[in-house]
Amino acid sequence: MPRPVISHPRRTSIEIHDHLRWLILDGVLPPGTELKQAELARAFDVSRTPLREAFRMLQEEGLITADINHRGRVTGLDVADLDCLYAARISLEAMGVRVTAGHLTRQEVQEASAHLHDMDRAEAGADVAAWHEAHRAFHRVLVSRCTPTVLRTITSYSERSERYLRALQDRHPGVFPQRRQEHYDLFAAVMAGVPERAAGLIAGHLARTARRVIGDLAPGREAPAVGQATVMVCGEDLGMTPVENWTLAIKGVHT
Which residues on neighbouring strands pair with residue 71, listed in sequence order? Predict the structure, then answer.
């Protein structure tokens, strides 16, 4: 297991938490992996005290379960959690692109464009880690006019949803070329300063991902929270309307 880099003794528990968190989110520690504080303490060359605190923080985030014997286990992918997580992302990121639309600086436009090209290169080279890094950076630019507090919440939800996104990528590699055009359309709407279109596009983009993963994890299961979030943003449950018709309706309003 990769060892964390501890920058200062006072930050040991925080940096161990961050390290384990990314190992979980990146799929290095898949669902069901058992984590033992004693073994990790030896592997990371630290005492068990900071590991206990790191375990506590991971448990609060719902990423592990832990017991009194100082053992933890990486939690599985949960459909109800996914539904609410993506509903929260739809609500917050739709607001984020609304307030950002038309207000990107020239530098931010260049950065977002570079992130899109990085995603294309990573996809062509089958570099999953690089794709996710560029994808995170691209979405951050699109909501950059939110306050730091809201940005931290959006980033946290986005990072936590990556486990589900990776599951979709593993099962349906052909989905990502389809999502490529959605990213370019979303970027164009934010650059052009069309907040309603940008909000509708991000809502549909996230809702389709959530429903696809839910369909894999629990065939036939609904996504009520995602549906309610898209109703708030777009006035309708995107799952109840064919995607093609909804996209045409949105384009018709703004062309």
Answer: 36
What are the Cα distances from residue 90, in Å, to 104, 124, 219?
21, 28, 22
- In the predicted model, what is the mean pLDDT of residues 147-153? 95
> What's the rounded Cα separation, in Å, for the pair 75 and 65?
6
Per-residue pLDDT tens digits for 198-230: 999 999 999 998 998 898 888 999 999 999 999
For 74, the enclosing helix (H) or strand (E) is strand 71-74
Opening angle at CA 86, ends 114 and 216, nearest 5:
100
At 172 the three-state DSSP class reads: coil
Would you state the structure tokens that stand for residue 142, as one six-digit string?
């699109």
Range of the domain at 31: 9-74
Q: What is the per-residue pLDDT across 18-65, written as a single tens digit (0 to 9) for each?
A: 999 989 988 889 889 999 999 999 999 999 999 999 999 999 888 999
Residues 30 and 113 in one domain: no
Task: Specify the 3-state DSSP secondary structure of 64.
Answer: strand
- The widest CA-to-CA distance across the chain, in whole angstroms, is 62
Q: For residues 61 and 138, state if they share a domain.
A: no
pTM of the model: 0.80
Do 167 and 237 lie in one domain? The reply is yes
Among residues 154, 135, 146, 151, the alpha carbon closest in space to that of 26 is found at 135
Predicted pLDDT of residue 197: 96
CA 154 to CA 150: how far, in whole Å?
6
Rounded to an integer, what distance in angstroms lies between the CA atom of residue 53 and that of residue 70? 11
